[in-house]
Amino acid sequence: MQRSSVTFQPEGKRVEATIDQTLFDAAGKLGVDIQSLCGGRGICGKCRVIVRSGTHSLSHTSDAEERFLSESEIRTNFRLACQAIVKGLDTIVVEVPRQSRIGQQRLLLKGLERPVQLMPSVRRLSVSLKKPSLLDVESDAGRLLRALRKKSGKELRIDYEALKTIPHAVRGGNWAVTAITWMDRELISVKPEKQSENLYGMAVDIGTTKIAAYLLNLDTGEISATVSMMNPQIPYGEDVISRISYIMRDEKNLEKMNRIVISGINELIDEACKKAGIDPKDIYDMIVVGNTAMHHIFLGVSPKYVSLSPYPAVVQSSLDVKARDLGVRMNCGAYVHVFPAIAGFVGADAVADALATGIYESEEMTMLVDIGTNTEIILGNKEKLLSCSCASGPAFEGAHIKHGMRAATGAIEHIWIDPRTIEVGYSTIGNVKPSGLCGSAIVDAVAQFLKTGMIAPEGNFQRSETERLRRNENKPEFVIAWSDESSTGDDIVVTQGDIREVQLAKAAIYTGAAILMKRMKVDFRDIKKVFIAGAFGNYVDPQSARTIGMFPDVPIQNVQFVGNTAGSGARMALLSTQMRRVAEEVARRIEYIELGADPDFHKEFLNATYFPHKETERFPNVMRLMEKD
Amino acid sequence: MQRSSVTFQPEGKRVEATIDQTLFDAAGKLGVDIQSLCGGRGICGKCRVIVRSGTHSLSHTSDAEERFLSESEIRTNFRLACQAIVKGLDTIVVEVPRQSRIGQQRLLLKGLERPVQLMPSVRRLSVSLKKPSLLDVESDAGRLLRALRKKSGKELRIDYEALKTIPHAVRGGNWAVTAITWMDRELISVKPEKQSENLYGMAVDIGTTKIAAYLLNLDTGEISATVSMMNPQIPYGEDVISRISYIMRDEKNLEKMNRIVISGINELIDEACKKAGIDPKDIYDMIVVGNTAMHHIFLGVSPKYVSLSPYPAVVQSSLDVKARDLGVRMNCGAYVHVFPAIAGFVGADAVADALATGIYESEEMTMLVDIGTNTEIILGNKEKLLSCSCASGPAFEGAHIKHGMRAATGAIEHIWIDPRTIEVGYSTIGNVKPSGLCGSAIVDAVAQFLKTGMIAPEGNFQRSETERLRRNENKPEFVIAWSDESSTGDDIVVTQGDIREVQLAKAAIYTGAAILMKRMKVDFRDIKKVFIAGAFGNYVDPQSARTIGMFPDVPIQNVQFVGNTAGSGARMALLSTQMRRVAEEVARRIEYIELGADPDFHKEFLNATYFPHKETERFPNVMRLMEKD
Fold it and tell me: How far apart are the first and last CA of chain B?
């Protein structure tokens, strides 16, 4: 009977919470939409809620709350959900304010894709068998394998679950059956011939933030359904490091996180099958890509050591695992093909990016930048490929930014500042009143500050002839939207601290690019093409991104935003086993550079914190445009 | 609330039975020891019980009961458990009389075995890995595989469950680890080197009546524990045909029977591990042998069609199935090697027999007879091998025999009759008062009847100068033990019907032998050795068996009782992968003869029903001895 009832508004979801449980955990159980970057450890301050009833049944204000909440907020019953612990039996009502909600995220599902020749891992073989007789008593399985060998020339083994269906299938089809084989090596399913349907496969891209899945008809190569969801692991940390920390806290958490992502994928399977009007049993193949942490958690393999220097992965070659061993609910004889990774945090998603952009067979020196909380960069051409991973942090996803938010309804996505009047214009996602800034807006803001001279190349605010630039607790901040324009009733600002976050993030990315160029012995003029991949990349203004020095200074027409190429690469490999071999080969060919081990790392990083860079000669195009304005 | 309480005496077990459930089903739920040959279909009459209380809450006497029970039995509340249906809410007390209990069965575990060179499928490879560094960030798995490749020269794949343990194992052992590999193909387990223990394997022989399991130390080849149990499927039918019928009655019954046998094996694993002081996780390999029906049910594969002409098996080549797919609780990366079968009912146990006896490399013409409810015969030498299966029925196991019982405590096992006085001597298992006749006693009885002229070669009783030979309901029967000697208080008799059962059984076996000899173009004089395998074979008197014409008339010194060679062959294959290859090759080499398809079958069978045979010239040794007596 040690339970309290907690209701979360405005969703109105109610849950029984036990004594000593936090409001954050209670919300997690219900799937209540509540932001957190740190996974409930009291260090991000994002999970603010207002307790409307039952305050005396909760723990007292914690140190963390005193750090993140103002005195007036504490007086008006603001709490951090992860710090407020249920202590008494009561009816507690909690409001989750708009800023603390994640909202309907805009999920990027499209990506650059190159055509492939249809050559799926599974194929259909129809054979007619001689009925057994007293003079020919070969077993059902032996009879079937013999006929298949005769037809295909291949020696097949039989999946154990498929074996059990053989006697019914051969008789149900009056000895005419269709066998589904995998990689010409294994018989994974047998059906009476007349029941034979299309074969389907699924490509799954497990992102830190979202999971996207594509159901493909393997007979035509067409996409039958596209589905996606927020990664259900988000309540346990918004970035991979928070999730790994969560897993390291308790041995059972790995299994918990694994089950959460597998259940999510099973939901996506059901949703896609419903859309396409097929049965999950008709899905005979699956490709999974994801960054190293998501990849490991999907496999139920500990990501702990990937987060500790020297960052070794547990496994980086591709794997074929029975769907039933993973708990993925598709055809029960089917395999899941887990993409190979390169090394450390340069994961299977980067390999899929390489596949989708074709960088590995490019004639010209090409750079591929997949921007995310971890940014992976690949530089090279068909001769040589180098890669690295940059801990760029979640600033471009709106985290660690005072009014940062995801690219969801109400987020400001683009900003422009009049260089003379310093008047600000902006656009929001969904054309509603703004409630915060998403990554592309932050990049715009910094680029505009730089162009208008509001900030110096070192990043500090300097020009002051506008009331928008003010001091708050003695720290400068710039007002993008006044309280009367915003949906939250507060001014939406960019602080000096926010600019530092952007500096660190872009410096991390540029440093990676610079060290790869150095190792490749090329400079920015040699780079003929830059691919920017990832959800963030698709909304950011390329001029702004180049202005702040996020990537080398190439002509804007040579910068191509390619979207979710991880998903595209996965789809290509789903349709073609040839592409899987290429992926494996490319993963081995791409050399991994551990940035931290490069002697120039610290110098490069420091110089890259300048906008666009301390060595301005590296950004002649940007400098020319700045002078022009 | 539709439940009655049923208590079974003398065990005192109580269960809640639902309306319309039979007493037999209620007993099955409790695991009450109650005999049945037909699996509860009312056709064997073996499941007699006495209702001590609550008779009015049971269904009325059925037709089947009127057939099997005498009027006085019906009056004194005897019922067949499978016919008495719970109809009212009451407290029902049921006594299971001694004759209806299976009792503690004598299980034959030893068998002829040939020494093999130790060459198990699993082996231990210890390697030291270089610790990862910023300049060497290969994944844990890649690092391990590379070291193993260097040491063994083999390219290994990794079991999915083993993969998950790698990061902990390599660090737990400070980068010195022991890998367990399977068939030089797959890494199935990884441990810190210092935790490395002996490797164990288990050989399992699933008999229709008993399951025997042998835990072997794969480092020394020694048996660490021997365990056995009655096959827990027995309540669903004593012979394979009853069990197959039970499975055919309802689709769910296959899964039920499969789970029952797997649970039984898991119990044996636990018991053996406790005896040997090891953990089930230390068991890295398992060999399973059994007749075709047991083999199929173990795999969860329908045995339905094996029981219908032309009797095709679902699978007859050997299989390696992950223990976790089968639900067998041993090391979770381990495989179960299921032995190959020959064809039809000549199953994996016959292949194991061949392995243990070495018949496949014999210089001399040899016959191997594995006597059971189905009897398998192999005839040949290193040049050529033929096999067949004979539906000999369960008579030699005491079934279909009026006072027949298994070889359990209280069973008469040997009988001798004074040819002049017709006085009977007998010995019982456990030296207690007799309660019935086991197979060896029945064979003795018939042989003695024949020698003393009590029966004619056609099998009918003929001599009548003894009060032991009498008529009961107008049918002749011979009293072996008088009521005052028996533990049941009834006379123990051999009826004319019992002799007919023996005639059919021995004719079935001899016909198989005869047709194989014909196909091999040899006669009884060419056969230099007869191996008799199976539990029954070990207790039967060879003279008696030959006298009734159960097998060809070879000199008694050339008949060798080899015991449970199915178990021995399984142990040999557990210790040596070379033996597995031999088994596979032998299974393919042994030609299967479908007796029913031979034009001489009916004539041969009819002639073989005579004792010892209609063509007495085929039994010169027996005839000579008969004349001498």
Answer: 69
Q: Per-residue pLDDT averaged across A183-203, rounded?
A: 91
In this prediction, residue A71 carries a pLDDT of 84
A132 at interface of B, judged by CB pairs closer than 8 A: yes
d(C-alpha A591, C-alpha B374), whole Å: 64
Cβ-based contacts of A140 with chain B (< 8 Å): 305, 312-315
Instruction: Return the axis-axis angle of helices B292-299 and B252-276, rounded to nearest 10°.
Output: 90
Question: Cβ distance A442 to A548 under 8 Å?
Answer: no
Task: Report how far residue B27's alpha carbon sits from residue B79's, in angstroms, rounded to the nearest whole number.
Answer: 14
Asked if B137 reaches chain A (Cβ–Cβ under 8 Å), the answer is: yes
Residue A567: CB atoms within 10 A of its CB come to 29
ipTM of the complex: 0.78
At A212, which amino acid appears? Answer: A
| Residues in CB range of B627: below 8 A, 6 or more apart | none
Cα A404 off chain centre by: 18
What pLDDT score does A38 carry? 67
DSSP B72-118: HHHHTTEEETTT-BB-SSSEEEEE--GGG---SB-----B-------
CB contacts, 8 Å: A316 with chain B: 138-139, 141-142
Residue A629 in this model has a pLDDT that exceeds 90: no
Give contacts of B158 with chain A, Cβ < 8 Å: 315, 319
Does the CB of A327 have a partner CB in chain B at under 8 Å? no
Distance separating alpha carbons of residues A513 and A552, to the nearest angstrom: 7
Evaluate the CA torsion angle B209, B214, B215, B218 in order and state its sign.
negative
Residue ranges and CATH numbers for the domains of chain A are 3-100 (3.10.20.30), 122-195 (3.10.20.880), 200-338 (3.30.420.480), 395-498 (no CATH)
CA atoms within 13 A on the CB side of B76: 8
Backbone φ and ψ for A63, nearest 5 degrees, come out as: -55, -40
pLDDT bracket for residue A109 (50, 70, 90): low
In this predicted structure, the answer to whether residue B235 has a pLDDT above a threshold of 90 is no
In sequence order, which ranges of B576-619 are alpha helices (DSSP H)?
Answer: 577-589, 601-608
CA–CA min distance A589, chain B (Å): 13
Higher pLDDT, B104 or B469: B469
Q: Tell me which residue has tokens 């190293």.
A: A292
CA dihedral A47→A50→A52→A53, nearest 10 degrees, is: 50
Q: What is the pLDDT of residues A375-408, one digit of tens each?
A: 999 999 999 999 999 988 778 877 789 998 878 8
Number of helices (H) and strands (E) in chain B: give both, helices first: 18, 27
Number of residues that this document lists for chain A: 629
The answer to whether B336 faces chain A, any CB pair under 8 Å, is no
> Each residue of B449-507: pLDDT tens digit?
999 999 999 999 997 788 999 999 899 999 999 999 998 889 999 999 999 999 999 99
Residue that has been written with the tokens 């349709």 in this structure: A575
Structure confidence by residue, pLDDT tens digits, B150-171: 999 999 999 999 999 999 999 9
pTM listed for this prediction: 0.80
Can you tell me the distance from the alpha carbon of B250 to that of B247, in angstroms, rounded to the nearest whole number?
6
pLDDT at B37: 64
Q: Which of A26, A38, A32 is nearest to A11 (CA)?
A: A32
Q: DSSP assignment of A560-572, as one string?
A: EEEE-HHHHHHHH
pLDDT digits (tens, 9 = 90+) for A510-548: 999 999 999 999 999 999 999 999 877 667 888 899 999
Specify whether the CB–CB gap between B524 and B618 falls below 8 A: yes
What is the SS3 string spanning A483-524? Answer: CCCCCCCCCEEEEHHHHHHHHHHHHHHHHHHHHHHHHHCCCH
The conformational region for residue B563 under phi > 0 = left, psi -120 to 50 = alpha, else beta, is: left
